[in-house]
Design a protein that fits this description.
alpha/beta, four-stranded parallel beta sheet, 37% helix, 11% strand
Length: 334
């Protein structure tokens, strides 16, 4: 949902090495059911097109960024991916542009393009992987499966380990603290919020919050009147642009009728979130969890950044440009 919202308007020590590999294989099995036609491990010859920011980040985070040959126009992290050709948007990728890059694997979020895209690509003999990422467990499973697919199992283990370490640090920090009633908003016109069953709802719970939105599905649309009736202690503002650029839509409504009556608005408890970290179900989700915890508890929270040290793979493995046999710029997306 977070990636879909930004595209239209708007998920971390195990014991011995053997146990680590066993746990990773179990995670990969979870993701495999959501992946399309199987392909062997990369063996250094993989050509990957990623259709969502979260999977682009994941490929780089596990150390396989050099295999990337194409991206969606919404993929912006790590910065090196911006030099790759775009094959269109999250919901409207160009099949012609994808095929022109001769990929061995197309990855992306399980989203609005639906099964038709998966079937079309597999019809052209292209392996696909569009896993569900609506929980931290599913995000870890996605990393594990990409590690297997791209011959980057050790890198996937490390990326999963960072998520788990960050989660453990946050859970320890919020232990014993009073729970905060909160609503996390993704958009304001109409209002879209984090509901039960979404990975954002899981983040709220792990960060010591109580989601005021208790029904209506994973990403319900609600009215201002409904939000007023719920009257959460804190509003988490995820309506800004990715990377924190530009004013959020919620900030522009603070003096509007209805909005100004919300207790969280009146008492200055509207907390901005970096959408690209918190709302993107990829390898930085542990840092997103920490950001949510800080937004909920403020200065009362004691949380070390030790588990969030920058990973050299988070932008270190620069993606390779398309080979000379590939077009320098793919056809324009429809």
């Amino acid at each position: 949902m977070a990636e879909g919202r930004s595209a239209s308007s708007s998920s971390r020590a195990r014991g011995t090495a053997l146990r680590r590999r066993g746990a990773l294989a179990a995670l990969a099995a979870v993701a495999l059911a959501a992946c399309g036609r199987r392909a062997p491990a990369a063996q250094g010859g993989a050509r990957v097109v990623s259709l969502s920011p979260s999977t682009t980040e994941a490929v780089c985070a596990i150390g396989a960024g050099a295999a990337l040959v194409g991206r969606s126009r919404h993929c912006d992290h790590p910065p090196e991916v911006l030099r790759l050709p775009s094959v269109g948007g999250y919901a409207d990728p160009s099949i012609e542009a994808i095929i022109a890059l001769s990929p061995t694997l197309v990855v992306g979020a399980h989203g609005p393009a639906g099964p038709a895209l998966d079937e079309t690509l597999r019809g052209h003999g292209i392996a696909t992987c569009f896993p569900e990422t609506e929980s931290l467990a599913q995000i870890e499973a996605m990393l594990a499966e990409l590690g297997r697919r791209l011959d980057a199992v050790p890198g996937a283990e490390q990326a999963i380990g960072r998520i788990r370490a960050r989660r453990q640090a946050v859970e320890q920090a919020v232990k014993g603290m009073p729970r905060v009633r909160v609503a996390m908003l993704f958009d304001t016109s109409p209002i879209f919020a984090a509901g039960p069953g979404s990975f954002a709802d899981e983040l709220l719970r792990l960060a010591g919050g109580e989601n005021a939105i208790a029904r209506g599905g994973a990403y319900p649309s609600i009215s201002v009147e409904h939000l007023l009736a719920l009257d959460p202690d804190v509003l988490l503002d995820g309506t800004g642009e990715a990377g924190g650029l530009g004013a959020s839509r919620l900030a522009m409504l603070r003096d509007a009728l209805g909005w100004r009556s919300l207790r969280a608005v009146r008492e200055g408890r509207v907390r901005p979130l970096r959408a690209d970290v918190v709302l993107r179900p990829g390898p930085r989700i542990g840092d997103g969890l920490a950001a949510v915890a800080r937004a909920l508890h403020g200065d009362a929270l004691s949380l070390s950044d030790a588990a969030a040290a920058p990973d050299p793979r988070d932008g270190g493995a620069a993606p390779a440009p398309p080979s000379p046999s590939s077009p320098s710029s793919p056809p324009r997306a429809p």
